[in-house]
Amino acid sequence: MSHKTAAAAAQTIGIDTGKNTLHLIGLDDKGAIVLREKVSRGRIAARFANAPRCLIGIEAGMATHYVARELIALGHDVRQVPPAYAKPFRQGHKNDFRDAHAIAEAVQRPSTRCVPVKTDDQLDLQALHRVRSRLVGQRTAVINQIRGFLLEHGIAVRQGLRFLRQQLPDILAKRGDVLSPRMTRIIEDLSGDWRRLDERIKHITEEIEVLAHGSESCRQLMTAPGIGPLIASATVAAIGNGTAFAKGRDFAAWLGLVPKQMSTGDRTILGRISKRGNRYLRTLIMQGARVILLRPANWAKHSFGLWLTAAAQRLHHNVLATALANKLARIAWTVLAQGRSYEARVEPKVA
C-alpha cells in the first residue's frame, strides 16, 4: 500500500516524538495497522498537508505543542497523550513504532486524559517560571555553601535567609581571627553571586507580575485567598482555562494533593498524598495555604473560618495545610472554568 493510500485509510494515527524524527503508526476503523512510517520533524506538516482529517495522538513531551498546533491548523483532531497513559497499551519490547502504536490505541479511549495544547503566551509564561525556579535553586545552593564554609570555621548563623544577609558583612569584617584571607575572599565572591541572583530573580518576578496583572484570568484568580501573581500565572500557564479537567477534584488530584489509595475488597486504605503532576505548582499552592494558616484572624473573611477552626483542632498542621491547598486548587479551577472572580461566603457570627 502506498503512503498516500495508507494515509487515506488511516482513521487514527499515533506519533512517537524524537529530537529529529517522528515515528507514525496509522490504524484503520477496525484497528489494523495501515501506515508505518518515519518522518523528519521538519517535514511533518508537509506530510499531513493533503491527508484526510483524522484523529492524531502525539506523545506529550519535547516540542510537541508546536507540532500539535501545526497539525491542528491543517484541520486534524490532535491530542497529546502522556507517556504514562500510553505505556499500558504497548505490547512486547519497547521501540519507537510500538510506542506510536500504543499512543494510537490510547488516544481512542474516552477515559484517556490528554494534555491541552499550550499557546505561545502560555509557553512564554511557563518559561519565565522555570527560569525563576532554576535561579531560586541556584541561590539556595550558594547560601548553603556559604553556611557550610562558615560552619567549618565555627561560625553558626541562625536559620533564615535574612539573618545570614544581615550578619554576613560583620562576619567578614570582624572574624578575621578564624577566617583566613583566602576564605574571606571566597565567601565575598559567593556573596557577589548571591546579589546577582537576587537581582535576576527580582527582575523575572516583576516581569511575571506585570504579565499576571495584564491577564484577565490571572486577575480573577488573584481574588481567591492565598493566590498571588506567581500562583495565578503558574496556574494559567499550566492548565489555561481548565477545560482539561471535568471538575476541581480532578485538578487537585492531578497536582498530587489527594491521598494515595490502596483499596481492596471492602477496605478503603488511604495513605500519604500522591505528589503526582506539576510539582512546581503544587509547591506554590502549598506555600499559599501556609500563608493563610499564619493569619487566623482572616479565616472568616475568606469563608474558611468554621471549617479551618474545626479542622485545626484535630489535624496536624502539615495535614491541615495540605487539606487547605486541596481546597485552594479546587477554587482556582472553578474560577478559571467559570470565568469569574472568587466570592467569599459571609459566615454568620456566633452569638
TrEMBL record:
Domain Transposase IS116/IS110/IS902 C-terminal: 218-295
Residue intervals of the Transposase IS110-like N-terminal domain: 13-152
GO biological process: DNA transposition
Alphabetized GO MF terms: DNA binding; transposase activity
Record-linked NCBIfam families: transpos_IS110 (NF033542)
Protein name: Transposase
UniProt source species: Bradyrhizobium erythrophlei
